[in-house]
Design brief:
The chain contains twelve helices and nine strands. It has two domains: 78 residues; 236 residues, Bira Bifunctional Protein, Domain 2 (BirA Bifunctional Protein, domain 2), CATH 3.30.930.10. A hairpin with a 2-residue loop joins β6 and β7. It is rod-shaped. It is 39% helix and 19% strand. The strands form two sheets. Strands 1-4-5-9-8-7-6 form a seven-stranded mixed sheet, with helices on both faces. Strands 2-3 form a two-stranded antiparallel sheet. The chain starts with a helix and ends with a helix. It has 343 residues and is of the alpha+beta class. Bound molecules: 3,4-dihydroxyphenylalanine. The site of 3,4-dihydroxyphenylalanine has 11 residues, from β8 and β9.
C-alpha cells in the first residue's frame, strides 16, 4: 500500500508549507472533508475483494487518524497559546483587595499637634511658603548680618527684579514669619497655630532634611505672661507624649523673643532615667519659645505697652520620630510602603 505512504508524504509536505492556522485548517477540509482526497480512496474500496477491503480500510483509517493528528500538531505550533483551549474565567478566585491610602505619619502628627492646640483655643492659620526677606528676617528682629540669621539664611528665589525691590524672595526657613502675617491681619486677642513646610540648606542626615515641617504657635493679648506659655506647653506635651510627660524650660536665645527658652520633655524611651536616645540626660528637646519681642509687636503695629504675647515653634518630624520610634528622619521621605503601613 505504498500509494497510501505517498499520499501521507504529499500531505505532510503540503502541511509543512502551511504558514497560518487558516491554511492548515483548510487542508483538513481539502483532504479529510466530505469531498476530500481520502474520501475518494474510501469510495474505491468497494471494488476490492472482502479480505483486501478489510486491510486497506484499516490502513486508510490509520492514515486519516495520522493526518488529523499532524494537522492538530501543526496548528499548535502555528498559533502557540491560541490553539490551546482558552481558560474560562475562574469566578471563584477572591478579588484583588484595593489598597487604601492613609495619612503620611508626618501629616498625621501635624494634625495631632494642631488638634491639641485647637482644644486649648488656638485656631489653625497658614502663611506662604515663599516669603520676602522682610517677613523671614527683619520683622522678626533678625538682622541679616547677625550670627543668629545664619541657619535661616537659605534658599533665595532667582528674581530678575531683585535689585529694584526692597526685599528679596526666599523659601521660608521657619514658620515664624507667619506670626507677622497673622498679627497684621487680625487684632488681639490672637491665638493661632501655624503648621507648614520650611526649607533650609541643611544636607540630609539622620536628623536633618532640607525640607521639613514646623508648627508655630502665637498668643497675643493683654496680660499674657511666661506662666501662660509654661502652662500651655506643659499641657500640650502631656497630650502629645502621654500624661506622665514632664517639661523643662532652658534659657535660650531667639532674636524674636525675649526672654527665650528651649523646652525639653522627659525622654519617651527611658521615662527620664537616661538612655542612648536622650544621651543619658533623661530629657529630649522639642521646641523653641519665648515672649514675643516688643520690637516684633511694633513691626505688627501692636502696642507693646498694652499687649504681650508668647510664641513657640516645634519641628513636626522630630515629634513624629519620638512618638513613633523612628530612628532616622530620612525614612519619612523614602516613603517605603512597608514603613508607611505601620501606622
Ligand atoms: N523659628 C525657630 C526655628 O525655626 C523656632 C522658634 C523659636 C519659633 C522660638 C518661635 C519661638 O516662635 O518663639 O528654629
Amino acid at each position: 500500500m505504498s500509494d497510501l505512504d505517498d499520499v501521507k508524504a504529499e500531505f505532510l509536505k503540503t502541511l509543512d508549507g502551511a504558514k497560518a492556522a487558516g491554511e492548515a485548517e483548510k487542508l483538513r477540509t481539502d483532504w479529510l472533508g466530505r469531498t476530500g482526497r481520502l474520501r475518494k480512496l474510501t469510495e474505491d474500496l468497494g471494488k476490492l475483494p472482502v479480505e483486501q477491503k478489510k486491510l486497506r480500510g484499516k490502513a486508510i483509517n490509520d492514515l486519516k487518524v495520522a493526518l488529523e493528528a499532524a494537522i492538530d500538531e501543526r496548528l499548535k505550533s502555528l498559533s502557540g497559546v491560541k490553539a490551546a483551549p482558552v481558560d474560562p474565567i475562574d469566578v471563584t478566585i477572591p478579588g484583588a483587595r484595593p489598597r487604601y491610602g492613609r495619612r503620611h505619619p508626618v501629616y498625621a502628627t501635624m494634625d495631632e499637634i494642631r488638634h491639641i492646640f485647637e482644644k486649648l483655643g488656638f485656631e489653625a492659620a497658614y502663611g506662604p511658603e515663599i516669603e520676602t526677606a522682610y517677613y523671614n528676617f527683619e520683622a522678626l528682629n533678625i538682622p541679616l548680618d547677625h550670627p543668629a540669621a545664619e541657619p535661616f539664611d537659605t534658599y533665595y528665589l532667582d528674581d530678575p527684579d531683585a535689585a529694584s525691590r526692597p526685599y528679596r524672595y526666599l523659601l521660608r526657613s521657619h514658620t515664624s514669619p507667619a506670626q507677622m502675617h497673622v498679627m497684621e491681619s487680625r487684632k488681639p486677642p490672637i491665638r493661632v497655630v501655624v503648621p507648614g513646610k520650611v526649607f533650609r540648606t541643611d544636607p540630609a542626615d539622620a536628623s536633618h532634611l532640607p525640607v521639613f515641617h514646623q508648627c508655630e504657635g502665637l498668643m497675643v493679648d493683654e496680660g499674657v505672661t511666661f506662666a501662660d506659655l509654661k502652662g500651655v506647653l506643659a499641657i500640650a506635651a502631656k497630650e502629645l507624649f502621654g500624661a506622665k510627660t514632664e517639661t523643662r524650660f532652658r534659657p535660650s536665645y531667639f532674636p524674636f523673643t525675649e526672654p527665650s527658652a528651649e523646652v525639653d520633655v522627659t525622654c519617651l524611651l527611658c521615662g527620664g532615667g537616661g538612655c542612648p536616645a536622650c544621651k543619658g540626660s533623661g530629657w529630649i528637646e522639642i521646641l523653641g519659645c519665648g515672649m514675643v519681642h516688643p520690637r516684633v509687636l511694633e513691626y505688627a503695629k501692636i502696642d507693646p505697652a498694652k499687649y504681650t504675647g508668647f510664641a513657640f515653634g516645634m519641628g513636626v518630624e522630630r515629634v513624629a520620630m519620638l512618638k513613633l520610634g523612628v530612628p532616622d528622619i530620612r525614612h519619612f521621605i523614602r516613603n517605603h510602603p512597608l514603613f508607611l503601613r505601620q501606622w
